[in-house]
Amino acid sequence: MKIKFLSEDALQDLRVNFETYKEHYYKRDDAWFDEYFGQEGRLLESKIEFEKPELHMGGDYLVRDYENVKIVYESLKDLPVSLATQEKLWSGLAHVYFRDYIYYRIAKDIEKKNDTRIKSAMFFENGAKRSLFVHALARLWWVGYMTYDENNQENPYWLTEFFCSADFSARCVVFFSSNFTSNRAITKGILRALIALRDEGVVIKRDHFVESTKYLNISGGALVLDLLEEDEVKEMVEKRIKKVFDVKKVVVIS
Which residues contact 50 (CB under 8 A, 6 or more apart)? Predict the structure, then answer.
C-alpha cells in the first residue's frame, strides 16, 4: 500500500482544536479516529510504498525501543530525508497506522492526562529539529537513520543498540539537539568513542553524552566539523572524555 499522510487542514484542525478532541486521546477512542480520518480530504496518498510492520509492545522500554527503532527504520529505509522531516507524515503515521503503539508508549501520560506529552508525541511541538527526536514515532526512524552503520555488514545496528541501551528518551533530546549532530559521520564518531571508552571499563552516563556534544560545539568555532572523518571525531572525543573525567586505563578481564 501507499502511505497516507495528513492534509494540512486536518493537521491544523487536530492541533488547534486539541482541547476539543483530547477526550478521544484519553479514551483511546479508535472508532472516533477512524470516522474522523475516513472523511474526505483528511488524508492524502503519497507515492511511497509501505508495508505496515508490527511493532513490539509490552515489557521493558529499553528492549522494545531498540527493537522498534530497527523495525521502523527497516520498513522505511528508502524514505527521503526531506520527507522524513515533515510533521504531516509522522503525525499521520502516528494517528492512522501506529495509534496502538502511541497508546503503549505514552500510556502513563494518557492516564495522567498529560496534554503536553500527548501533543508532543503526536505533533511537532518542539521546533522543527528537536521535534524529530521527541515525537514518539519520528524519533524511532531518525535514531535508526543517524546510527545505522552501513560499513558494519555483520551488525549495522551496533551503534543503535548502544545508543538505545539506557535513557532512550533523554538521550534522543540531549544528543540530537545540537546542529552538528545532524551529520551522521559526527554522530557515529561520537558513539564509537563512547563505546571504546565503555570497553575500557568506563560506565557511560548522560554526562558523557553532554560533554561530547558540548566539546564539539565549542570546537566548531575553530574547526569545520562537517569536514571531519568519523575516526577524527572518535579520537577527539575519546581524548576529551578521558581528560575531563580523569579516565585511567582500565584492564578488562574477560
Answer: 1, 2, 3, 75, 76
